[in-house]
Amino acid sequence: MIKINPSEFSILVVDDIPNNLQVLGSTLKRENFKVEFAINGKYALEWLYKREFDLILLDIMMPEMDGFETCSIIRKNEKYNDLPVIFLTAKNDTKDIIEGFKIGAQDYITKPFDEEELIARVKTHLMIRKMSLQMQELVNQRTAELQKTHEELVISLKQLEILKNKLQDENIYMQEEIKLNHNFENIIGKSKKLTKVLHSVENVAKTDSTVLVLGETGSGKELIARSVHNLSKRSNKPLIKINCASLPSNLIESELFGHEKGAFTDAHKERKGKFELANEGTIFLDEIGEIPFELQAKLLRVLQEGEFERLGSDEIVKVDVRVIVATNRDLEKMVEEQKFRADLYYRLNVYPIKLPSLRERKEDIPLLVNYFIKTISKKTGKTITGISDESMNILQNYNWPGNIRELENIIERNIIISQSNVLKIDNTLMPPNLIQTSDSDEFDTLDNIIRKHILRILELTNWTISGSKGAAEILGLHPNTLRSRMEKLNIKKSVNYK
């Protein structure tokens, strides 16, 4: 892999907000890039007439001449046909992004930006540009000197094309992947149960063993998977994730293993699957319990042999991938019910990590609350310095069926409406099942306690059992299992539930 020396590259940053120029300039200069600034499109074009640049970071929303018009003018000049342009946009607007790509931008970054993502994308495009220029120079030199080197050049260009396609595929994945705006960047907490989990992560990360992360919805399973990857020897390679529950069964095989052109009706071109994108890195399969039974044999083959065929092809593709899976389902029970292959389950269950629910580590709630207050306040432009004792007590006395994700949502809702520097929880924004457990519950039967908890969750979800954010998902049960338990506990509603 070719490396770049940032001090060799000049970058033009175009933004009409001085503070943005200062932040972007500081970030790039720390990496030793040479940086020049323009406060609008007109000055950007004047800079291009004066000197050469290797890449442009171009804001979209600017007065007089916006980023689209500026980029369009740049692309009309043959001299700048291959000059990388990355749009900076304050909103993740799909129409703007599509329009930008049509005009000739290579990429986009949403503000406020993540410094590591910004530097990674800048280096990726500079690397592609440098490789293209070097290969073109080599082609010109060899063609002029020796005609007999034609075959070697063809091979070199083919290798360049493969590498360029790989970089583009990884970049497309980065663009398509949902940004982690609703996830915290670090694992927050000091409880004994969480500490035990983190020790397990440290132990298994050094190996290539398959990891099975178990835990309720919203408890942070993806975060554990990312930690395993980041602490592993594959940390400098891609971590590719896919949610098996979010895709129709007829598309998941193509997503995982890719397809050839014409493999099915909408297969207009060849496409690599997530396993190929994750080669030499890690793949995270979330909600593994939802993978279709007929596809489980193909997944088992990848785990055992490291090989598969794309959809519509007989050619074997070899990959070296570390596999991490997660689920909130009871896989052992699914094996008993013949809904999940026993051999696949045993292959996945090499190193299980059971993630505690938030109600099992309530001592971590103050740390999480303070973290969310800090990050969400920054995101919303509020100045929240803390939380009232009464509000903290409310949060600590709630059982959090939706776990950390639910806690983050509650904090964000209350920060949005807060008129004070000290956060106070508005009870009207809390879930309807925020009910203190009475002292008499201590001596209640287990069935009654379970019945009350299920009823609270059903009320919270308006008696929606299945689907995303339904009661079954929150409780970590299969919808049919929840229905059977409701029948056993005589839980009914006067109207039909979904």
What does this structure look like?
The chain is α/β, with parallel strands linked by helices. It has 19 helices and 14 strands. The strands form four sheets. It has a five-stranded parallel β-sheet with strand order 2-1-3-4-5, with helices on both faces. Strands 7-8-11-6-12 form a five-stranded parallel β-sheet. The relative contact order is 0.07. The model is unreliable at 175-185 and 435-442 (pLDDT under 50).
Distance from N terminus to C terminus (CA atoms, Å) equals: 53 Å
Low-confidence stretches: 175-185, 435-442
Tell me the total number of β-strands: 14
Task: State which percent range the strand residues make up.
Answer: 5-15%
How would you write the strand order of the largest sheet?
2-1-3-4-5
Question: Which whole number gives the mean pLDDT?
Answer: 84
DSSP helical segment count: 19
Rg measurement, Å: 27 Å
Keywords:
globular, 14 strands, 498 residues, 19 helices, 5-stranded parallel beta sheet, alpha/beta
List strands and helices in order, with pairings.
Blueprint: E1 10-14, H1 18-30, E2 34-38, H2 41-50, E3 55-59, H3 67-75, E4 85-89, H4 94-103, E5 107-110, H5 115-145, H6 150-176, H7 192-205, E6 211-214, H8 221-230, E7 239-243, H9 249-257, H10 274-277, E8 282-286, H11 296-305, E9 307-309, E10 316-318, E11 322-327, H12 331-336, H13 342-348, E12 351-354, H14 365-380, E13 386-387, H15 389-396, H16 403-417, E14 422-423, H17 446-460, H18 471-475, H19 479-488
Parallel strand pairs: 1-2, 1-3, 3-4, 4-5, 6-11, 6-12, 7-8, 8-11, 13-14
Antiparallel strand pairs: 9-10
Helix pairs in contact: 2-3, 5-6, 7-8, 14-16
